[in-house]
């Protein structure tokens, strides 16, 4: 870790503006995490218009705090409502809700908040050490290397997310196709614009994300949902843990961190996979001691909750050091950087050291703030769950359409939002994952640029794409990521392994 | 039950065919692309062509899978239950609310269309107490409007521009920027 820069970042993060935006981000993040139907990617996209008016450091601090905050807040909903507040909390629901029904809501909320804090602190520490090192490597990477990494991100997210490889990849290529819309900057050709002048600039990322997540979700709920009938567990007062709870929690916290961080760094598409892995591991390990799993085992809350926070911190590493997002939320954060004309990536640490170190320092502060506003105030956040679902969804749409409008002050964007919203509805109905599409739209144009650069440097010889050991290693990794799980389940099915 | 799943299969088949059709759109657009001033070794056609081909093959394979009986699992609904049979009434109300909002926002302004949007959607999704809902709609819209226009200094239309007579020449000018 670069100590001098880190300390400079720390002192810069302690201004009233930065602390204020950090606090605002943690509160908004927790709010978004608690409320069902709205996740971190959507929340940050709804707030992207503030990049037009707020200075970069403060805005990025707020966005990062939102990312961390949703991971904290999501557990509240999982534990008190039998529904996850966002996708990283699905696993918490299994044991957390059972605990709450047995009158142990307080312990579940406490282990979730403290575990999130521990994981966030450790993972942010590793981030501060690892990111500059990776950036240092990043500066020495060729365009072909970058292109390979992007292909890895595409392939991994496309194959991990969703119920089948084909569905994941179709979603990815739909995203890549949408990313083509507009003027090709290098040649001046118009692609997929159908001679509509408004489409020359492409589709605004904010509009796209807002319509896929917000409008798509609400249209889906309207068409295929029956709201209400969800049982809520009451919780008031202070969340506490017994000595035994502490004893049972600390190891799962650390194991969750160990699973969450690397899966955040690698393009695994977000927090679904690490929380699932952590839950399975804790279940397996606990089997020897007790059979509480399924009836409210605290390990099943502690592990996944630590994993999803460590995952969020892990995702910041490739984002800051290489400019490559590994989840939908990281992709939206990348757009935030682009709005400021700051290119996230290897040069960030040399060009904007103060900004990036202030951001990292703010993550530590935000993590601490989150512990403070989540642990003692868990009972207060629980009150938010009284908001009736129809109000919530109507509010989401209102904010979504405001967000879509203010970017260009044009109602054309609302029409686009409606069209893409219907696509989002259909994706949900027919089991297509949304994340690969988002990644395709945002990373696609960057991948094309690196591809062109690579071939430019090699006078058009495609062999350049596999010219370095790094590229070969990445493509082998990609092959393994796609084939290994399938091989495993095939072997299991045929009974070759148990 | 059999009828229902047959209908479901048809829906998924239509959607998958739609994706297949989109791949053809991408390919046709790419073929018709005029490479006006190509600089460098990779023109503007390479990427779209690869994407179009990939989409074409994948969605083609997916159509075969659907015909063979593979079905997509619908996503769950947060704060309620997912149902297999579509409920058209609330859906149409939501769509109409969004269309009305898009069409009338510049004319009537956010302070009118915001509450209308919120009210219609919450009502369509099952909020019953109309008076309470109306009050919440208006308060929320006012807070959002002033939060954005005063707090963040981002433009939201106040509407009713037609009351103040606009100089027609100015109108024409602004129309020509596109």
Structure description:
The complex is a heterodimer of chains A (498) and B (178). Chain A is an all-alpha fold and 498 residues long. Chain A is built from 20 helices and three strands. In chain A, strand 1 (182-183) and strand 2 (190-191) form a beta hairpin. In chain A, helix 3 packs antiparallel against helix 4 and helix 8 packs across helix 19 (435-457). The model of chain A has no long low-confidence stretch (mean pLDDT 89). In chain B, helix 3 (88-108) runs antiparallel to helix 4 and helix 4 (110-124) packs across helix 5. The chains are: A mainly alpha (498), B mainly alpha (178). At the A-B interface, helix 8, helix 9, strand 3, helix 17 and helix 18 of A face helix 1, helix 2, strand 1, helix 3 and helix 4 of B.
Order of SSEs of chain B: HHEHHHH
Unreliable stretches covering 5 or more consecutive residues of chain B? 169-178
Question: What is the number of helices of chain A?
Answer: 20
User: Beta-strand level of the residues of chain A, as a percent range?
Assistant: under 5%
Give the structure's gist in a few sentences.
Chain A has 498 residues and is mainly α.
Strand-helix topology:
The complex is a heterodimer of chains A (about 500) and B (about 180).
Chain A: H1 3-13, H2 16-34, H3 40-47, H4 56-80, H5 90-101, H6 105-139, H7 143-160, H8 165-180, E1 182-183, E2 190-191, H9 205-224, E3 225-227, H10 243-265, H11 272-286, H12 299-322, H13 328-339, H14 348-351, H15 353-374, H16 378-383, H17 389-408, H18 412-429, H19 435-457, H20 469-493
Antiparallel strand pairs in A: 1-2
Helix pairs in contact in A: 1-15, 2-4, 2-15, 3-4, 3-9, 3-13, 4-5, 4-6, 4-12, 4-13, 4-15, 5-6, 5-12, 6-10, 6-12, 6-15, 7-8, 7-19, 7-20, 8-19, 9-17, 9-18, 10-11, 10-12, 11-12, 13-19, 17-18
Chain B: H1 2-31, H2 46-67, E1 80-82, H3 88-108, H4 110-124, H5 130-151, H6 168-176
Helix pairs in contact in B: 1-2, 3-4, 4-5
Q: Which characteristics define this entry?
A:
heterodimer; A: 498 residues; mainly alpha; two-stranded antiparallel ribbon; 20 helices; 1% strand; B: 178 residues; 2% strand; flat; disordered C terminus
